[in-house]
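Before the break, one more example. Copy the sequence into your notebook; we will annotate it together after we see the structure.
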Amino acid sequence: MPLEASALSSLVFADHLVAFPLALAATRENPSTGVLSHNVPEELIKALCSAFVSAVTADNIVILAAVAGAADVVPLTPVVPVTFSLPGVDVAVAGFLLDQGWTGTGGPAFADVVVGSVLRNTAVLGLLQMDSGKVVGTGTGTVSPASNPGLAALVEGNLNPLLVTAFTDSGYFGQDDVPGNTVNETLAAQLPTYASWLAQGFATITASPLYVGNGSVPSAAAEVGTGAIT
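Here is what the structure looks like once it is written out:
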């Protein structure tokens, strides 16, 4: 299954209901301003996931791999899209909670949903598709934070405006509770923290894509492979 916002938000909201069962009844509306009835955490998660998926699958997000193998006269070809891991999830959750300054009893669980569950389920749904290369035939790629030093900054740069747009377009989080208004001040002040720690968690991506060539030359070769999340 590809990484899609609707599928991601469904999994994240399910995790939210496990942590907060009463959230199923957390609905509100405001007929005086045109806000329709909605489940508040569900709509927050939908907007968050929509922005995040757009951010990490954008054209400027290129995942780099250190590829090593045998030289080949035929460009290397990735075997299949591969799964990936995000080992920095727990660190991202802790950093997000600290920066938000939440001290209530529900803070850790909520942070684990809006950062931890988003990242964990991104790794469940997403795949890494590497591009064909130029030098190596048969070989192995290593995707790691070391091979992607600028990834967090790129994702965060994408996320900041995308979060504002997603929450504004939802019609449920507008200033003065008016659909179409920009995001209310309280949430708007928090969105950069969401962007920062979701980006930092994603930038811990690791994977080991395989490549197959033919016409192999009996000498070692290496190059930087490129790919993207699908």
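The mean pLDDT is 94. Strands lie at 27-30, 35-39, 63-72, 77-78, 128-130, 136-142, 210-212, 216-229. Try to locate both features in your own notes.
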